């Protein structure tokens, strides 16, 4: 009898211990996790992943997207993504290193899901990676130099075959990280980042209005140096408050409709860029400043004039 008593006592103790271990393991899971590799070089595929503990697709308050904001060592925002977790709460996104990632050093990955927040850090080495990567880069440079020489020889031979007085216009050969635009090599821009407020207002990243904003940004604004500089400063301001507004839109349908109505005039003003050809920095500055002034007039000056006239009638 004493032997059986000791046996049940041991089983009972093991049961309590296993229950405590499982409870501790569950409690150790963070509400929001974010993971990435420790080091990337230019051209590598950067993968950001994680887990949302309380994600629930049946509850609007617990089925929000995860907002990922990546900042450079100097604090500039270089990329923003909105990711929809799967039914288990797992999320993941991938993109190529480079583009707006100009600096070498530690980049911070900040994840937000409602009130939850977490961070991860990875080191970006720019174009310098492992010895194998460097050898591949050197070989690519050698191949590029040989191709450039062959192109120059072909152009010279073509010039010799032409009639006197007949001119030849040759296009420059752009190096890695640059693209040819208007016969000039300009820095290649990485397309990315989300229009958080518009996406929440219109319900999907595939909505025509959101696609329109993305096309204006990637196809027009980022194609000039002045436009890229403007977007860098704009992103710093916009992404400091847009995740909060986007979350509130999903929680409050009335606020969502209000935002939708409020941004419609801005979308209309941006449509002007679809009907003009911007081929220089001066044109980008001119049209950009004009549209900014137009929006200031619509959103601030016009309402102020109306309020002023109403108050004067009283």
Assembly state (oligomeric): single chain
Strand order within the widest beta sheet: 1-7-6-3-4
- Overall number of domains: 2
Mass-distribution shape: flat
Largest sheet: 5 strands, mixed
- Helix share bin: 40-55%
Order of helices and strands: HEEEEEEEHEEHHHHH
- Report, as a whole number of angstroms, the end-to-end distance: 98 Å
Q: From the helix content, strand content and strand pairing, which structural class follows? A: alpha+beta
The number of helical segments is 7
Rg over alpha carbons: 28 Å
The number of distinct β-strands equals 9
Give the strand content.
15-25%
- Outline the low-pLDDT stretches: 16-28, 128-135, 186-192
| Overall average residue pLDDT | 76
Topology record:
Layout: H1 2-27, E1 39-40, E2 45-51, E3 66-71, E4 77-83, E5 90-96, E6 105-113, E7 116-124, H2 131-161, E8 178-181, E9 184-187, H3 196-202, H4 208-219, H5 225-251, H6 253-270, H7 281-313
Helix pairs in contact: 3-5, 3-6, 5-6, 6-7
